[in-house]
Design a protein that fits this description.
single chain; 337 residues; alpha/beta; Rossmann fold; Uridine Diphospho-n-acetylenolpyruvylglucosamine Reductase, domain 3; 2 domains; 6-stranded mixed β-sheet; 5-stranded antiparallel β-sheet; 12 helices; 52% helix
């Protein structure tokens, strides 16, 4: 077992963030949690600090190392990370090898494979939470990505501290603090070369856009973007709840079809009607759709002059008298609404 490091500001900050997050979300003595650990500075600091806090609170802390197999060294990195985590006292420490497909691009495919492996491990060990090492910097990058994609307040909301079984205790901790934690703890993180690959949009935002913004606008841009995410998340939660109420009140659900009265739809505030439409398309299991598609449906109500039906990805939308009909070629699952 490595010698306990002296308490430094970085170690204290990371430990405190984890302790407060576990307390806030009801993790108690006897619970099992797992840390998703790549061997990088953020997840390594998370794992070491979670083990420290877990031992004090009677919480079992294990780890899952996902080997995406995208680089020749990843199997070796996974094994060495396993050795480090085992020496720190985490248990169980699991390595999960995954196959990364091509759907949605390399980043999205790797993410999907990773979360599938984490879900399976959490279910197998009845873990209350899987802890993720996303930081304040990651949150700022996520907000900027949302801005570039024009994806609305849902994307600007960034990452929530808790999403189902996933817990992100370090969203108020900077990447620099985690790196200092590792140095102060005598831990050597893996420097993933993919984190410097400029072909990835997030890497360009991290290494080029954010530093430029800080240089031109002054320090504090990262914190400001994270605060923006907090405010957007609060607004999105309220609007999502209203939209679900409107959906349940005004949308009629049939086997392969949804119907919305044009008068009801027109009376909804724009922010609500668009969310209702997103819920409708999601209920019909439609694939990706854009704001252009949403506005095209609006035209059937706000600027009706006998248009033909719309063909959206996976869904046909048409106006029949004073009803908007959305039809899918797939049968809805029971209880889909």
């Amino acid at each position: 077992m490595p010698q306990r490091p002296r308490l430094t500001p970085a170690i204290a900050d990371v430990r405190r963030a984890i302790r407060e997050s576990l307390d806030a979300h009801g993790v108690v003595s006897g619970d099992q949690i797992l840390v998703a650990c790549s061997g990088g500075a953020d997840s390594l600091a998370l794992a070491a600090a979670a083990k420290f806090e877990g031992s004090r609170a009677g919480i079992s802390v294990g780890a899952v190392i996902v080997d995406h197999g995208l680089q020749s060294v990843t199997a070796e990195v996974a094994k060495s990370t396993m050795d480090v985590l085992t020496a720190l006292g985490l248990g169980p420490v699991l390595i999960r090898e995954v196959s990364v497909g091509k759907l949605g691009g390399p980043e999205a495919a790797a993410r999907a494979a990773r979360y599938e492996a984490l879900d399976e491990a959490a279910a197998a060990y009845d873990a209350k939470f899987v802890l993720l090492g996303h930081t304040l910097n990651d949150q700022a990058e996520t907000v900027l990505l949302g801005l570039t994609r024009g994806s609305g307040t849902r994307s600007l909301s960034g990452m929530a501290e808790v999403s189902g079984r996933y817990l992100r205790p370090l969203l108020r901790i900077t990447r620099e603090t985690n790196e200092a934690f590792c140095r102060d703890s005598g831990l050597t993180p893996w420097m993933d070369p993919h984190n410097k690959e400029v072909r990835f949009t997030r890497v360009r935002i991290r290494d080029e856009v954010l530093p430029m913004l800080e240089q031109e606008l002054g320090a504090g841009v990262i914190d400001a973007l994270a605060r923006t995410a907090d405010q957007a998340r609060e607004d999105e939660a309220a609007l999502a709840e209203l939209a679900e109420h409107y959906f349940n009140e005004f949308v009629k659900v049939r086997a392969t079809e949804l119907e919305i009265g044009t008068d009801d739809y027109a009376a909804m505030p724009l922010a609500i009607r668009h969310r209702v439409l997103v819920l409708a398309l999601a209920t019909l299991h439609a694939p990706e759709f854009s704001r252009t598609h949403i506005l095209a449906v609006d035209e059937l109500v706000d600027n009706w002059h006998g248009q033909k039906s719309l063909t959206l990805p996976g869904v046909r939308v048409e106006r029949i008298a004073k009803v908007i009909s959305l039809k899918s070629t797939k049968t809805l699952r029971p209880g889909a609404c």
